[in-house]
Specification:
The chain is of the alpha+beta class. It is 39% helix and 17% strand. InterPro entries: GspK_central_sf.
Length: 286
């Protein structure tokens, strides 16, 4: 009788020890993750201050800022700062606005994610979502301007796969802005939008990027005018920017209004850290 009881006790003790070891290991992993996350946040905070100071003191050009031997592009391309943080600055005048809506360009953009008929339906849904006409029988739930880009996932036809970025193409959250600008700064339009919203060919895109690399802004203005995608030749940067940060697997994003008349630090309009993908659990739109 003693031996079986002893074996049972030993089995129970081994089981309890295993559970404690598993829990301890999980807590250690969690503590390590929190430490890495905190270090990343400190690094990103340092990068934020360096970047904003560079934008305040640098020479503002249609497609970026010149700060000594550093050029900070504002078309969403990533550069690496000295502390190892990668940053991508995007002038909101280079994105498609959901407030100052350009229906033709927005419809062409959605055809990069779905067929033409479905794309047209989604754009109509976006328009109806923001309409304030209470007598419209086809109105959607919001009937006012978008409060957040995340609300796009409540639009019938838009999926998380379309909204989030992947390794093949940028998602809608990287190409659209809530208010953005009433004009387009073509020096800061991302390559994906130039092709899929404004109809540039690969040859046109290659030429555009060559002119950007050489800071030939007047030539870019002439090019887009000759292609018939702009009504004038102005490349005017806005004061609103979206910035993405990356450091050792951690990402963050923020939006700022940067003006030389505004004291430092500039007003932060939006901040996500960590910046996760967006998924909707339940759509209330029918």
């Amino acid at each position: 009788m003693v031996l079986p009881l002893a074996l049972i006790v030993i089995t129970i003790m081994v089981t309890m020890a295993s559970i404690l070891l598993v829990r301890s290991s999980a807590e250690i992993d969690e503590a390590a993750l929190v430490q890495e996350q905190w270090q990343a946040r400190l690094k990103i905070n340092d990068a934020e201050q360096e970047l904003l100071l560079s934008m305040f003191v640098g020479e503002q050009l249609p497609g970026g800022y010149n700060v000594g031997d550093l050029f900070v592009p504002t078309d969403g391309k990533f550069i690496k700062l000295k502390n190892g943080v990668e940053v991508a600055v995007q002038d909101l005048a280079g994105l498609l606005s959901l407030h100052y809506l350009r229906k033709a360009e927005l419809t062409r953009l959605f055809t990069a994610y779905t067929d033409e008929q479905h794309a047209a339906q989604i754009v109509n849904n976006i328009i109806r979502w923001q309409q304030e006409d209470s007598d419209d029988e086809q109105r959607l739930e919001r009937n006012a301007p978008f409060r957040s880009l995340d609300e796009l996932m409540l639009i019938p036809g838009i999926t998380p796969e379309m909204f989030n970025d992947n390794h093949e193409r940028p998602g809608l959250r990287s190409l659209l802005a809530l208010s953005g600008s009433s004009f387009v700064n073509f020096a800061t339009v991302p390559d994906f939008l130039l092709v899929h919203a404004f109809g540039l060919t690969e040859s046109d895109l290659s030429r555009m990027n060559t002119l950007k690399d050489r800071s030939r802004w007047d030539d870019i203005s002439t090019m887009i005018f000759d292609l018939g995608i702009a009504v004038d030749q102005s490349l005017i940067p806005s004061s609103r920017y979206r910035v993405l940060y990356k450091y050792k697997g951690f990402t963050a994003r923020a939006e700022y209004q940067v003006r030389t008349t505004i004291p430092l630090p500039p007003r932060k309009r939006l901040w996500y850290f960590p910046d996760h993908e967006r998924h909707f659990l339940m759509s209330t739109a029918q």
